[in-house]
Structure formats: structure tokens, C-alpha cells
Amino acid sequence: MTTVPEAAPTRVPTVREQAVEARRAGRVLGTLPTEQKNAALRAVAASLRRHAAEILTANALDVEAARAAGLNDALIDRLTLTPQRLEGVAADVDKVVTLPDPVGEVVSEVTRPNGLKVSRRRVPLGVLGVIYEARPNVTVDVATLAVKSGNAVILRGGKETVRSNAVLVRLIGEALSQHGLPPAAVQVISDPDRARMLELLRLDDLVDAIIPRGGAGLHRFCVENATVPVIVGGVGVVHLYLDESYVQDEAGIESACELIGNSKVQRPSACNALDTLLLTPTSARLALPDVARRLVAAGVELRADPLTYELLQSHGIAAVPAQEDDFGREFLALTLSLKTVAGLGEALDFIALHGNHTDAILTRDPVQAELFVQNVDSAAVMVNASTRFNDGAQLGLGAEVAVSTQKLHARGPMALTELTTTKWVVRGEGQVRG
Amino acid sequence: MTTVPEAAPTRVPTVREQAVEARRAGRVLGTLPTEQKNAALRAVAASLRRHAAEILTANALDVEAARAAGLNDALIDRLTLTPQRLEGVAADVDKVVTLPDPVGEVVSEVTRPNGLKVSRRRVPLGVLGVIYEARPNVTVDVATLAVKSGNAVILRGGKETVRSNAVLVRLIGEALSQHGLPPAAVQVISDPDRARMLELLRLDDLVDAIIPRGGAGLHRFCVENATVPVIVGGVGVVHLYLDESYVQDEAGIESACELIGNSKVQRPSACNALDTLLLTPTSARLALPDVARRLVAAGVELRADPLTYELLQSHGIAAVPAQEDDFGREFLALTLSLKTVAGLGEALDFIALHGNHTDAILTRDPVQAELFVQNVDSAAVMVNASTRFNDGAQLGLGAEVAVSTQKLHARGPMALTELTTTKWVVRGEGQVRG
């Protein structure tokens, strides 16, 4: 026996109807004091803990169905909640409670020569549409960040998570209600039909932003079909350029091994994991054998251009010849392509062609470092640090709803502030325009 | 005899080819010092003045062709350059030189517990696509703001301005070259075929933002067809709510007449001109006869709901009964709709339904004012000031490239800062993620 709710006998609302409710809820949520939003979020965390058994039972049914449908192990792993993971989700809600509320912040304030007091005030975006795949933890993460920043949100999770999401969203709604927040502030599109996702993408009169979280295909689908503004991200090729100045001694070579290893191996499925290592002939000669041995020992397949292939062969280190499409490619796996460049200029050209997400340089030369920082136009530029630091928590934002690789609105990790906009407030005493 | 250039015998480049050049130019422009950009802009202004005869000759041919094609007077007026208008355009370029350069600004800077130095640096968006209609002054305005903010721009003007734009863009390119800036930073799509506009809208691998400047139809076309992010704006219904506290005495009524008159009449074709006046039965009784007489004297047609219609009739003031679609409608002309509401709450609901651009309240009650400011979610909210102040120059931004009514990235007048984004810069000493 389970407590998963039966399909309701009533008509499923259209996405437009949901969005109208979300808009109304957003109007209320946008003006609530921080303490009331925090109280509701604390109640969400408490409810997740109190109803752990119910959540895990629903999730187990999702997992069972996913196995029956033959989904791969990686997907099933992302879908699966355990008591420990669920506690982590609740703890993340508690953490968001502690973050500052961006709403109401006065961004600028001036008095004009005619006496008008002109200010810009930070306000919620309004209604967010978030589209994601198997992970039920995203449901809670996103709902929490939306509520804290005063936004209503319509969640469209993968069909694998329907049962988990139904329970989670019901519990969130109940907790919001207890503290006077409109439960319609957090809604889920329960019917996983793609037509409903398409409907969401085109509600530009009601929804203020679409945030897709998933692979390149999902992002492309959103960009191609949405009339609502889309924030794309989370997809991109990550480069690291190893300047020879960094590997002039044992300590430098050891540090390069650690940094490149961490960038590639620490979590290869993440969007900020390294894809392509750029080397000069000299930096390759000085450091590549050591770097490559370390990577191969960690299970990395190296796809090497002719010069680095030859070098690795001569050291008896396993590698395969790189194909053309191994460059400008996001692997999301234990694979790394190696590319030789003449120097910084060629590295910059290569990154300009293929990069936009996270790009790093290892160098001891401050001029090279500054040239790299100036000229690489990516969401995050790293000097002598792992590419894995391009992450909301690591950069000090406390949490992130997504990592944007576009330039409009938000770039890099998006946290609470990126879920807001501003409005101009003008106060006068009868001024007219001459 | 004219100096308008003949059609070149060479193949017209595709928009993609233009965008590749723009991207390359943008990479150069993005790292140039402010003084070099300013020198180039000063040269642009000087060149416009020096070549006034050539520009005006080309423009006269555009105007002649427009007349022959039967374009309406308003459009022809917007198309027409005069010596005085051209001097105004050059003076605006000089003004942009004096504005602060947003590029390079450090937006935030922290040192993380692990010693990483994390900052965000303001950088240009990259490549802009700006689509507009008849006005050749926009060509220079937009090019100037783009160059100052380090962006390349692809301009797609109306077909009416082809000859004017060809000369203007050539002169701009020459001035940029003189100061070492890539002339491809400012390009025009010379072939006015709609297919080329469509090509521009879908170059999301090369173009960072589309800014349409025109009517609702153009904005809709961009939103429906673009895969490049679009900043929509310049279109919206403007409301003013007249609270009874404002019109308790002669001075208040006189001020209401002035503010409402200015909002409606000062430039009725502007997007921030008043469309709908909201009144309570009491504020209507106290002030509407005076307000209406003033408006009618200025040539305004009043479209009144039943209560205000009856009131105006009883005072012998001309009005027509409002139709349903006179509310939530942008007139861009000397027409104003009048709507009675029970009080602030109903006014807020009405504005939530129809507003998003500029909405004003006239009140002497600070509580009402604050409630209005809190609850109206529009690009600009005005208290006791003309709606016409929602304008880049009026709000102190110095210049504007467009007025955004969307929430992502920029809201309200967009000036130089809104043509930039940020990138994260992380400096370490070998840190890896644990």
C-alpha cells in the first residue's frame, strides 16, 4: 500500500490556466516581507523531513517505473532519492532561508535637477518556467529559490519524476499555505506531454522567463520554440591553457597535474569539467607526460592532436588520435582532448571559436594572465584555479538555479539576485516635461 | 549630380558573413581603452558635420522615393534630415563621448575562504542586432552607443532609409578606421529584404542580442522568429490613477490638469504618453470637468466609460462612449480613454491586467503612494509626475538605445550599461575543488 495520490477525476488545467494562477500568486508573493517567506520555507524543510516516508515511497515507484522502462543507470541514479539525499535537499532549503533577500533593494537613487527623485528598486521577475529532467531535488531547489526571491514558478520535470514531484509540490504548497503564501506560487505541469511544454514556452503574456536545465537538446528546443525569453546555460566547452611559465619546476608540474586532474576528474559529468587542454610544444614537453599519466590512472581517455599524440607515444602513455570533432566538444565524461597551440594568441583564437562557459589559464606570468582575462569572453575566466569553481556555491552565491552561458540578464551561476529585475520609481511634486 | 554611391558590382555579403566580421570586430573593440573609443566618436561627429551636404543629398533621395511610394507624412517626417536635425545628431554623438564608459567596471569582488579572488567585470555584450524603421538618426545614435560600450552592431533600418544609411555607415566606418577601430564594428544590412532580417534573427551563434525599435508588429515578429535573445520594449499601455486626495483644492486640480495634459499631449506619439486615465467617482466629480476641458482644448478625443461619459455630457464637454477595446490599448495619438474604478485596489487590478510600461498615481496620501509603488509591476512607476519622464535622458542616463518593457536583462530606458554584461574572473594559486 502506498500513499501516492490517485489521478484526480477532475480535468487537468491547461498550462495557460496554471500560468494565470501563477501570475496572481506572484503578485501576492512579490510584496511579502522576507520573514514571512522565510517562515514558509522553514515549514517546507520541516515538511520534507516529516513526510520523508511518503516522498521516498513515491520516488521508489518512479524508480521502479524507470527501471521497467529501461532507463540507463546514470539517469536512475539522478532520479533516486535516499533518506540521506532527502535530508540534503531539506538542508539546502534551510540554507536558502539564511541567504539575503534581494527583493526591495534600492539599486540606485538620484535627485534630478528638476527635483524628481529617481530610484531603481529590485523586484521579482514574476513568473518563472523551469524545465528540467530526472532530478526530483531540482523541484525543491528551484521552488525554494523562486519563493525566496518572490517569484511564482511553473515546474516541468521529466516524466520519470511525476510521482515524486506530485508529492513534493503538494507538500510545498501546504507549507506555503500555512504561512499565508499562495500555494499556486509553486505548480508542476503534471502531464509530461511535450505539447504542454510547448504551451509553456509560448505564454509570453504570462511567463517572464524560461530556465531550461538539461542537455544541449533541451536548450535548443527552448530557444527554437519559445516566445518567452529563455536563459540558456549549463552547456559549453571548457578549456585550460597551460603556459610554459607554470611548469618550470617540479612544484609547478605537480600543481598543473592537480589542477588539470581536478578540472577533469572531480566530477566529469558537470558542465564545468574540462574538455580540452591547450598546450604549447614546450609546456607539452615539460609537463604533459606527468599530467597524462595522472589522468590515465584516473581513467581518462586522452584524444591527442598529432604533436601531443607523438609525445605520449614516445613515453608509452595511452592515447588515441583526436578527430576533428573532438575539439569544440563537451564530453561530460572521462575524456579529454589535447591541442597544441603556438602560444597565447593561438589559444585565445581557439577559445574564441569554441569557448563560452569556463576557460582557465595556468601561468606564472602576470602579463599573460591579464591578457587571458581581458581577451577570453566566457562566463567565467580562471587563473591558476580549477575550472570546477564555476559554481554558485563555490563563487559565494550560496545557491544557484542554473549556470547561464548567454550574455543577456545573467552570466555564469544564477542565484537569487538573478531571479529579480528592477523597476524605476519616480517621485515628483507635480513636475511636467518641458 | 549626387555623390550617392552606385550599387557595388560585387556580391552582397550574407548576414552570416557580416556577423562573422562583426564578431571579429567586437573582439577588438571590447578591449580598447575608453579614450580611443572616444576619439573615434569625436571623429564621427566631425565627419557628419563635414559631410553634411552629402548626407542631406542622399537623404533627399530617400525622401523623394518615399513620397513617390506614397508613404504617409508622419513617416516622411521621421525619415527627413535637415541641417538642424543633422547637427542635433552630431551633437548627440559628442554627448555620448562625455558619458562614462561602463566597460571594465568591477561589479563585485570578494576573497573566498579558500583564498580564491572572485570578481565580476563589466564587458560588452559582443554583437548587437538593431532593427528599426524609417529614422536615419537612429543609425547614428545606435552606432555611437554600441561603439562606446565596446559592442559591434549590425543595423537593419527600414528600406526607406537605404541611401541615407549607406552614407552614414560609410562615414562612421571611415572615422572608426582613422582611430584604429575596425570599421566592421558598425555594419548595415543594405538589402531590405525581409529574409535577411529573418537571417539576422536566427544567428544565435554570432549575435548576442536583438533590439527592435518600432511598433508592436515588429516586436512580435522578432519574438516569434528570433533564436537570438530579443529585448522587447517601447510598446505598452500607460495609465494614470487620479486619487481624490490630489484634487481637494484649486491648486490640486490645476496640478492634475497640468500633469495629465503633459502626459497625454506633450508628445502623443511617444510610448510613454498617457493612454488611460483612471478615476474614482469622487475624483472624477472633483476634477474631470477641468481636466477634460483642458484636454479637449488641446485636441484630445476622450473615450469615456458610462459614468465619466455621463459626467462630461452633463458639463457639455465633448466625449465619445468608450468601446471595450479602448482599454488596454496604446493610442500613440491624441486619444485618451477614461475609466472609473472604485478605488486604489481596483486601479491596481486594472493596471496589473493592462499595464507594463509606465503607470502613475497622483495622490497626497503617502500610504496610497507607497501601495501604488509596491504593487504596480511596470518598467516605471511615477508618483505625482508626468508619465513622459520614463525616458533615458530624463531619468539621468544620458542617452537610451531603447525602452525595454520586458523583465530580463534591462527594464525601462536602456543606456550604455544595459549594453554590457559581466564575466566572472577567478584568480587562484593552485586551488582545486574538494
Task: Return the CATH class of the largest domain in chain A.
Answer: Alpha Beta
- The CATH level-2 architecture of the largest domain in chain A is identified as 3-Layer(aba) Sandwich
Tell me the name of the CATH homologous superfamily of the largest domain in chain A: Aldehyde Dehydrogenase, Chain A, domain 1
How many strands, which pairing sense, and closed or not: the largest β-sheet of chain A?
7 strands, parallel
What is the total domain count of chain A? 2
> Could you say which structural class the secondary elements and strand pairing of chain A correspond to?
alpha/beta
By DSSP, the count of extended strands of chain A is 16
Radius of gyration of chain A: 24 Å
Q: What string gives the helices and strands of chain A in order?
A: HHHHHEEEHEHEHEHEHEHEHEEHEHEEEE
Mean pLDDT of chain A: 94
Query: What is the share of helical residues of chain A?
Result: 40-55%
Low-confidence stretches of chain A: none
Number of helices of chain A: 14
For the termini of chain A, the CA-CA separation is 74 Å
CATH third-level topology of the largest domain in chain A: Aldehyde Dehydrogenase, Chain A, domain 1
Shape of chain A: globular
Query: How big a fraction of the residues of chain A is strand?
Result: 15-25%
How is the largest sheet of chain A built, in terms of strand order? 10-9-11-8-7-12-13
Largest interface: A-B, 68 and 68 residues
Overview of this protein structure:
The structure is a homodimer of 434-residue chains. With 434 residues, the first copy, chain A, is α/β, with parallel strands linked by helices. Chain A folds into two domains: 236 residues, 3-Layer(aba) Sandwich (Aldehyde Dehydrogenase, Chain A, domain 1); 160 residues, 3-Layer(aba) Sandwich (Aldehyde Dehydrogenase, Chain A, domain 2), CATH 3.40.309.10. Helix content of chain A is 42%, strand content 20%. Chain A has 14 helices and 16 strands. In chain A, the strands form four sheets. Chain A has a seven-stranded parallel sheet, with helices on both faces. A four-stranded parallel sheet of chain A has the order 5-4-3-6, with helices on both faces. Chain A has a three-stranded antiparallel sheet with strand order 1-2-16, with no helix packed on it. In chain A, strand 14 and strand 15 form a beta hairpin. The longest helix of chain A has 17 residues. Chain A is globular. The model of chain A has no long low-confidence stretch (mean pLDDT 94). At the A-B interface, strand 2, helix 10, helix 14, strand 13 and strand 16 of A face strand 2, helix 10, helix 14, strand 13 and strand 16 of B. Chains A, B: It is an enzyme of class 1 (oxidoreductase). Chains A, B: It catalyses: L-glutamate 5-semialdehyde + phosphate + NADP(+) = L-glutamyl 5-phosphate + NADPH + H(+). Chains A, B: Pathway: Amino-acid biosynthesis; L-proline biosynthesis; L-glutamate 5-semialdehyde from L-glutamate: step 2/2. Chains A, B: This is Gamma-glutamyl phosphate reductase. Chains A, B: It comes from Deinococcus irradiatisoli.
